[in-house]
Design a protein that fits this description.
This protein has helices at residues 61-74, 91-101, 116-120, 161-171, and strands at residues 3-10, 13-18, 32-35, 38-41, 49-54, 81-87, 107-110, 124-126, 132-133, 136-140, 146-151. By secondary structure, it is an alpha+beta fold. The strands form three sheets. The protein has a five-stranded mixed beta sheet with strand order 7-6-5-10-11. Strands 1-2-8-9 form a four-stranded antiparallel beta sheet. The longest helix is centred in the middle third of the chain and has 14 residues, at 61-74. The chain starts with a strand and ends with a helix.
Length: 172
């Protein structure tokens, strides 16, 4: 598997990401995650433009903010899009977070089982004491093509919400 040394920084320190760098124009890589106890693959999300908001853990301030900002940003798009927060949090923790924070539009996908989203989308951080995903945002159109990809250069910083939401609206 490809390893990208120093691809992003975590608290100012360069870290390696496992997997390829996914770029706009590429075919969206497959994955097998969990939504609750149900397996979810890329094919299961097909049929709409999709936004994948990748976070290290929903129980941290920046990840919470990111999820809630995308939640607010997509409400006007209705059922034309599907939006997911992807993390290594257990599905039970994701459900608890969404309930406590009133997140109803963003769906959660847990990559805790086999890290296939992290590895296939190039966001799995290597070398930390605990596996985490790097902060990133991807937009995939109905045809399965990545139309927007942002790997946030400092994992503790927020993504470009406006650019991601504009890409999602364009893909819808």
């Amino acid at each position: 598997m490809a390893k990208r040394e120093g691809a992003v920084k975590f608290k100012g320190n360069p870290v390696a990401l496992a997997g390829p760098e996914v770029k706009a124009g590429a075919k969206a890589p497959d994955f097998k995650t969990l939504q609750g106890l149900d397996a979810v693959t890329l094919a299961d999300t097909a049929g709409k433009a999709r936004l994948f908001s990748v976070v290290p853990s929903l129980d941290t301030p920046v990840c919470s903010t990111q999820t809630k900002k995308f939640e607010d940003g997509i409400k006007g798009l209705g059922d034309k899009v599907a939006c997911y927060t992807v993390s290594l949090d257990l599905p039970f923790a994701q459900k608890r977070f969404c309930g406590a924070e009133g997140v109803t539009t963003m769906q959660t996908l847990s990559d805790v089982h086999n890290h296939s989203f992290g590895q296939n989308w190039g966001v799995l951080i290597e070398g930390l004491p605990l596996p985490l995903l790097a902060r990133a945002v991807f937009v995939v159109d109905k045809a399965g093509t990545v139309t927007y990809a942002e790997y946030v250069s400092e994992v503790t910083s927020e993504p470009n919400y406006d650019a991601a939401l504009a890409a999602l609206k364009a893909a819808a």
